[in-house]
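From: lab user (bench 3)
To: helpdesk
Subject: output format question, protein + NDP

Hello, I'm new to running complex predictions and I'm not sure whether the block I got back is the full result or only part of it. Here's what I submitted:
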Amino acid sequence: MATTTKKPLIVITGASSGIGEATAKLLAAHGHPLLLLARRLQRLEALNLPDAMCRRVDITDREAVLKAVAEAEAAYGPADCMVNNAGVMLLGKMTEQDPAEWDRMLDVNVRGLLNGMHAVVKGMVERGRGTIINVSSIAGRKTFPNHVAYVGTKFAVHALSENLREEVAPHGVRVTVIAPGAVETELLSHTTDASIIEGYQAWKAGMGGRVLSSDDVAKAIEYAYNQPQEVCIREIVLAATRQQA
Ligand code: NDP
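Helpdesk reply: Thanks, we reran it on our side. This is the complete output you should expect:
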């Protein structure tokens, strides 16, 4: 039986750490029921947020994403916002990187994000409202050393988001891109090349020890969502003040 809630359902992918986790906490504090998706179910459940349905879903599994969204909508009503945040960054040189790492980034950052949009966009168009927030990166606007495949995925996120925005704007549905610079999260830890990790850490240290926090990005997401439905923040680009590139 449907639960009556004051605020509508928000779906967040990759809510088990970093930006997704911070966004889940902030939106829960604003009273939203949530559907939280990631592979590390324990980390989702440990957040212990009210009205939060937690599901172990690999975002590349389209059927699993559709099933989880349908289950949450049956419990909390239609999804009013989808935060497509799940992502991986496996930095490497094209001359040395295992191609399986490009495949993984394309699968999660692009195909997974499309799966998230697919799960909600039709319903949003039918209802004439809704917001899709796609987490891209400054690496979706400009290139960085050792980022070839990663920037490819994030440029794709910028492009497909803008094209979806054009498609659904006449139906009253918003699409927003969030493009952060360096954020202190677990993201870098999955890169396998130790010297690239070291160089990235030195780059961050050069910013005076203060890159963005996950909370900084969560606040940008919340700001975009909480505009009146008639106002679409198309893109927010944010970075540490001392980030030059
Ligand atoms: P984290 O590594 O802390 O978080 C990544 C999240 O994505 C985790 O919750 C992880 O959950 C989830 N995830 C990864 N693969 C999958 C998968 N196959 N299925 C479902 N969920 C998955 O990093 P961030 O918080 O930094 O990253 C969030 C987003 O922000 C990413 O899209 C990233 O590209 C972007 N970004 C990050 C920046 C940074 O400097 N940190 C800068 C710019 C953009 P689990 O492992 O439990 O599945």
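A quick orientation on your result: The chain has one domain: 9-238. Let us know if anything else is unclear.
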